[in-house]
Each structure stands twice: as structure tokens, then as C-alpha cells.
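As described in the Methods, two query proteins were run sequentially through the folding procedure within a single session, without resetting any intermediate state between them. The first query and its resulting C-alpha cells are shown here.
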Amino acid sequence: MIHEGVKMGKNVVVEENVSIGPNTIIGHNVVIKEGTRIGANCVIADNTVLGKSPMKARRSAVTEIGDLPPLEIEDNVMIGAGCVIYRGARLEEGVFVGDLATIRENVIIGEGTIIGRGVAVENKTKIGKWCKIETNAYITAMSVIEDHCFVAPMVTFTNDNYLGRTKERFKYFGGPVLKKGARVGANAILLPRVVVGEDALIGAGAVVTKDVPPRKVVIGIPAKVLKDVPPEQLLENQE
């Protein structure tokens, strides 16, 4: 169902059982796959694909092919040009997705979160509300980012300590966990399954090999505690 006030550009492909809410704007050459649900007052820019089904490589470790629910895009979401957002994802109200971003299946992105230009969010990941994931960050499969987190440009999450070798690795796959208010500086690397505590701060270029205590600043390779996060920077002290 296409509601009143929807505007579409040229060469838009809309498959069966798609719902588009009132006053949504669809750019040129957009492809909207079967069953996709788009809320009201959304903006979808040119050359974006919505509701794509995953393709499983022969040696993929975490991609699963099966029945996925339709892509759900809630009200007031803005999606940039050249994005690919998969079936089975859900974008909550007010999410912003920059140009050329990719969001895989079984991903939830919470209200008001910003996904920057060129960001890749892999499958089975949950991102909370009011987060900011900046340009070209890589969020690996099976990661968790809680509310009010900040991830700077070029940050890399990882989920496989065995680097694709041995069957043993299948027991231990898991991405990093950022607790509420955690912040990660540019070009930092987080190893699989590390937990970054609430309001912790990871310095630029750090390699995080162990859990990070709450409200601590860590820097270096490997990352070590430097000091406490200054009180004025704590989430509870923000206006």
C-alpha cells in the first residue's frame, strides 16, 4: 500500500506487498523489495536498495539463509544514496543512515541513532538509541552497542580470534559489547567479545584485547587504563 503524499523519482522498482507511509520521499532508481515496510515522513535517496535478501558464500561462518521478516523502517527515517539495507533489519524512528552504508539482516538500530557514510553493520547486531557510528566504521556480526554510544571513523570491530582457521572457532564467535555511553576513538580495533564498560573511553588507535572497566580511559597497544573519564564528560552530566 502506498499512502497519500508519497513522492517517487524516476525508475523506482516497488515489489509486491510493500507499504510506504504518508509523505515519504523516494529518490531515483530506488529498489524496494517484497514485503518492505516504510513509515511516514521518511526520505530514501537515489540508488538505494531496501529489503535485499542475504546471499551466503560457501565458506560463510555466520550468514544464515532462511525465512526473514520484512525490512521495517519506522517514521521519520532518512536513508542516503547508494545504501543497501537487508530484509530482516529494523530501523526505529528517526534513524539517519549516511550515503553508501550497508545494514545487514537481523540488525536492530534504535531510535535517533546516526549511521555514518560508508558504515558497514553486519548481521545479528543490535545498536541502541541515540548512538553515533561515524564514517567507514566496521561493526562486525554479533556485536552489541547500547544506548548513547559513540564510535569514531574507521573503528574496526572483530568477532573471530581464529582468523578463519579450525572448526574450534565456531564455538567462540562473538563481536564486542559497548555498554551504555561508551566511546571509541578513531581507528581503534576491538577484539572479539571484549566488553567496554559504561561511559568508558577508548583512545584513538588503541587495540582493545581485554574488557574495559566502566568510566576509565584506555589507550595504547594493547590498551591499558590511563585514568578516569573526567566527570564533566560522563553521560549523567550531559544536558
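Immediately afterward, the second query was submitted; its sequence and C-alpha cells are:
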Amino acid sequence: MENPKAQKLLNKIQRDLMRNGIITNTIVEDLKELRPYAVEEKNPLLAKVIRLTYEHIETYDTFDIPIPEDEPVEGFEDELETTEADPKESLDYLLSLMSESRNKINALELREYSNNLTAYAEEN
């Protein structure tokens, strides 16, 4: 996000998350406040991920989406472990991707979060 106000709000959300964990009302309101900045910056992927994120938290009172896994290195596929999603850690990682959403790698991971959030909602 390029807007200084959006960056400041994003930093506040991350600080609150680290201090207090996922407080549904606070984080949902802050994300709803953040979304118009993504729309203003003409970043539809980011706007969608923000919306899906606050809808998920509003519905499930947590963030059950794991951090996207790195691609396995050839020859080491068996060493990848499936880990349980740490809601706070995964949400913090997602927020950090949002701050540099125009970065190609971050955009790919934001798209993966978007797909995972949509799939989770369809399954539950």
C-alpha cells in the first residue's frame, strides 16, 4: 500500500494483533477502514483479500488460513511437514504481504490467500 495513512493503519493493525491477538471487533473494523485505500490505489486483488479476511474473521472469530507453503525443492519433497495454522502468525504474515502488495511474490501469495479463503468459506 502506497498511501501513508494506509501504511500507518496497517502498522496499527499488526501492532494490535501482536499485543492482543485476534480481537474480532477491532480487527474487522480496522480492515474495513483499510479496504477503501486498496480500492483507491486500483488494486482489486488487495481489496478482495482484505474483504475476504475480515469476512472470515467476522464469521469464524479466528483466522484459520495457514501461511502458504514454499514450493518443495526437488529431492526434498518428503521433508515438508504439514503444520497447523497459527491464526495470529498467519494473519500477521498476510498483513505484511499487504504492505508491499505490488511485489510479484507478495501478489502471488495474496492470490493464494484469496483462493484459500474462498475455498474455506465454500467448505464450511
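The longest helix spans residues 104-123. We note this only descriptively and draw no conclusion about the first query from it.
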